[in-house]
Design brief:
Shape: globular
Radius of gyration: 13 Å
Structural class: mainly beta
Helix content: under 10%
Length: about 110
Amino acid sequence: VQLQAFGGGLVEPGGSLRLSCAVSGSVRNFHDMSWYRQAPGKEREWVARIYGGGTTGYADSVKGRFSISRNKSWNTVYLQMDSLKPEDTAVYYCKAVRGMASWWGQGTLVTVSS
C-alpha cells in the first residue's frame, strides 16, 4: 500500500483548498483513513478521520471548517478545507489503517498567509 498526498499550496486567510490522498496497492478492508498535520516546531496532530462505514470525526480546531470524504473504492480520500486560518499552516499527511498495520503518505504543505 502506498499513499500520496497532494493539493497543498499558498492560500489567503478565509480561502479554501482541497487535499487529496491517492492510495495504490490493496485498498480492501481499510478500517479508517485520517489526515494529520504538523506545524513548524510542533508535534504532529490528528485533524480528521473517516471510517469504513462513512462515519467521520474532526479535531475541535477544524470542526465546521474541514470536511473529509472518500470515493467508493477507497483509493482516494479528500480533505476539503474552508475558512482557512494562518494557524492551519502545516504539512498535511494522510494515513490508512488496516488491523494492526498503518501506512503514511508523504506530506503536502499548506500555507495560509496574506
